């Protein structure tokens, strides 16, 4: 039995993970952590006594893994505790800076960490297909562009998933980090080594990501649409089951799914 904790338990993802965990016979939610923990309820079937403010790194109790969907600073604070208590960690938080990414990399030398900008099976397949297409179309007179759409409340842009797609395209299409975030005015002709990236925000869109490969007389579109957060929550629980059995290191969903 995996006894696990959630950091960011009162967020949309935290609540979805807690709800889906009730259906798992192999795991049990032992701690639900949130900055707004006082007098809050996670949902029907969740014991209120599990909602606490922090893990004691000296006495982590039965916690054998932690899932984090919060914000970068809170994630790193929790990561420090997990390193101290030797608790494997799944990080679904996005928006980390370069120094924060380096900190996560260093921490992975001491505990097993699975970090992914998107936990869904479909999106990770999109990553694999984008890499395959980029490698096939490099130097074939195709231009790469991408677009993502999220709900009006999302705080970061581009999304973490979009950044992962950008990285894949830059690597496979030999674009040398030349990303154009939107275009306006008299921009001149599109340069061959550009990658256009566009972020749309509005309504209650859970997450849409589209990658375009634009050629002369033809185009290819790779698209993923998420209609509810359960796909991410389910993937996070799969990631948890994987990471608690791993040695220290930095892992991703590609390894979980065997893609």
Walk across the major sheet and give the strand order: 3-2-1-4-5-6-12
The best one-word shape is elongated
CATH class of the largest domain: Alpha Beta
Q: What kind of sheet is the major sheet? A: 7 strands, parallel
Radius of gyration: 20 Å
The N- and C-terminal alpha carbons lie at a distance of 26 Å
- CATH superfamily heading of the largest domain: NAD(P)-binding Rossmann-like Domain
Mean pLDDT across every amino acid position? 89
Q: Your description of this structure?
A:
With 259 residues, this protein is α/β, with parallel strands linked by helices. The chain has two domains: 2-119 and 229-257, Rossmann fold (3-Layer(aba) Sandwich), CATH 3.40.50; 121-226, Dihydrodipicolinate Reductase, domain 2, CATH 3.30.360.10. It has helices spanning 12-21, 72-85, 98-107, 121-137, 160-172, 230-243, 253-257; strands at residues 2-7, 27-33, 51-52, 65-68, 89-91, 112-115, 143-150, 179-181, 195-201, 207-214, 219-226, 249-251. Helix 4 (121-137) runs parallel beside helix 5 (160-172). It is elongated. The model has no long low-confidence stretch (mean pLDDT 89).
Descriptive labels:
elongated, Rossmann fold, seven-stranded parallel β-sheet, alpha/beta, 259 residues, Dihydrodipicolinate Reductase, domain 2, 7 helices
What's the gist of this structure?
The protein is α/β, with parallel strands linked by helices.
Helix-strand blueprint:
Layout: E1 2-7, H1 12-21, E2 27-33, E3 51-52, E4 65-68, H2 72-85, E5 89-91, H3 98-107, E6 112-115, H4 121-137, E7 143-150, H5 160-172, E8 179-181, E9 195-201, E10 207-214, E11 219-226, H6 230-243, E12 249-251, H7 253-257
Helix pairs in contact: 1-6, 2-3, 4-5
């Amino acid at each position: 039995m995996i006894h696990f904790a959630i950091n960011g338990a009162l967020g949309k993802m935290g609540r979805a993970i807690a709800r889906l965990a009730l259906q798992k016979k192999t795991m049990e939610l032992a701690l639900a952590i949130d900055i707004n923990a006082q007098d809050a309820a996670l949902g029907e079937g969740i014991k209120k006594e599990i909602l606490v403010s922090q893990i004691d790194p000296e006495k982590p109790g039965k916690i054998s893994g932690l899932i984090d969907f919060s914000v970068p600073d809170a994630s790193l604070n929790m990561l420090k505790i997990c390193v101290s208590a030797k608790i494997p960690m799944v990080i679904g938080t996005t928006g980390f800076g370069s120094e924060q990414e380096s900190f996560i990399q260093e921490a992975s030398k001491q505990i097993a960490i699975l970090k992914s900008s998107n936990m869904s099976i479909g999106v990770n397949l999109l990553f694999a297909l984008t890499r395959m297409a980029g490698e096939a179309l490099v130097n074939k007179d195709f231009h790469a562009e991408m677009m993502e759409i999220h709900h009006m409340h999302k705080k970061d842009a581009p999304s973490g998933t979009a950044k992962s797609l950008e990285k894949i395209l830059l690597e496979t299409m030999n674009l040398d980090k030349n990303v154009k975030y939107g275009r306006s005015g008299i921009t001149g002709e599109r340069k061959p080594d550009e990658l256009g990236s566009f972020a749309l925000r509005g309504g209650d869109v859970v997450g849409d990501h589209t990658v375009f490969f634009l050629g002369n007389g033809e185009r290819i579109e790779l698209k993923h649409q998420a209609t509810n957060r359960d796909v991410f929550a389910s993937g996070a629980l799969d990631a948890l089951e994987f990471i608690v059995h791993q040695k220290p290191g930095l892992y991703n969903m590609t390894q979980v799914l065997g893609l």
